[in-house]
Amino acid sequence: MVDVAAIVVTFNRLEKLKTVLARVEAQTLAPARLIVIDNASTDGTAAYLDDREFSVPFEVVHLPANTGGAGGFAEGMLRGYTGGADHVWIMDDDCYPKPEALANLVRGFDEAVAELGGDVPFACSVVEFVDGSICEMNNPVPTWDWGRLLVKGQKNVMVAACSFVSVLIPRWAIAEYGLPYRDYFIWFDDREYTLRLTRRCPGVQVMDSTVVHDMGENRGVNFAMVTKASLWKFAHGVRNEASYQLHHRGLLYFLEFGARLVVSLHRGRVALPLRLALLRKWFSGITFNPSLEYPDRVREKDASDPLPVVRTGI
């Protein structure tokens, strides 16, 4: 029996989180354990999680500060790994898996391994919007030969990258490639991590593993959409991608990304102060270069740092 640790990262989405947890517990293939990472929520999430009864073995982790999606996923994956899980199944707090999502994800992953070999680094689900249409911002990046497994009769397509909305990652991949960069905080952490995992072999999207992303408006994201209210998210995304392009691909990719950024902001008629703010973030990618964190060699916490509060149960 495969040992899967389901990882849910949450921040101030209590009502949606209730649905996510109920959907995880209702899976036809139950996870061996459920790990909930509470990113210092302030909306009553902590009290709810401390009082809630779970139908599967669980671990609730209340982080002392909001570490963003990137920090939450890194923490959850680390705990799943050190707990001995064969795979971690990661999702956000607005991802509602359909009943057979995990069972089909595990089956699809195993089928891909049987055809491609043991280097398959992840399997991801199809992500729908609440109205049943495809979720625009969660489409994975296909490989040039994406249909290779389809012609073998599988329900899998080959992908190079995906978002962290229902992704199954095997233990060996975490050991070899490390954890997501905590310091990214939010945006581009999932793209960088899955690109990191597919250096040797593509991942797969399992076409009959489906989740619903309750994300509000169904549209993709591009730099022309930046506003004063959303600037903080775009700022993280620009800094993170700039760092990735420079430090992991090279100077020409960094410059090309900067050029794309300028063109997108110009075409979107983004206000000049917002353009300048994002260009400064692009430039900051030169010095922003987080270190890889491996689960077997986790950096030691500073003794002065507050520790997370943990509740467990079987």
Q: What's the arrangement of secondary structure elements?
A:
Layout: E1 4-10, H1 14-25, E2 33-38, H2 45-51, E3 58-62, H3 68-82, E4 87-92, E5 95-97, H4 101-116, E6 123-128, E7 141-142, E8 156-161, E9 167-170, H5 171-177, H6 189-197, E10 203-213, H7 231-249, H8 251-267, H9 272-284, E11 309-313
Parallel strand pairs: 1-2, 1-4, 2-3, 6-10
Antiparallel strand pairs: 3-11, 4-9, 5-10, 6-9, 7-8, 8-10
Helix pairs in contact: 7-8, 7-9
Explained architecture:
By secondary structure, this protein is α/β, with parallel strands linked by helices. The protein has 2 domains: 4-219 and 293-313, Spore Coat Polysaccharide Biosynthesis Protein SpsA, Chain A, CATH 3.90.550; 223-284, no CATH class. It has 9 helices and 11 strands. The protein has helices at 14-25, 45-51, 68-82, 101-116, 171-177, 189-197, 231-249, 251-267, 272-284, and strands spanning 4-10, 33-38, 58-62, 87-92, 95-97, 123-128, 141-142, 156-161, 167-170, 203-213, 309-313. Strands 1, 2, 3, 4, 5, 6, 7, 8, 9, 10 and 11 form an 11-stranded mixed β-sheet that branches. The radius of gyration is 19 Å and the shape is globular. It starts with a strand and ends with a strand. The model has no long low-confidence stretch (mean pLDDT 94).
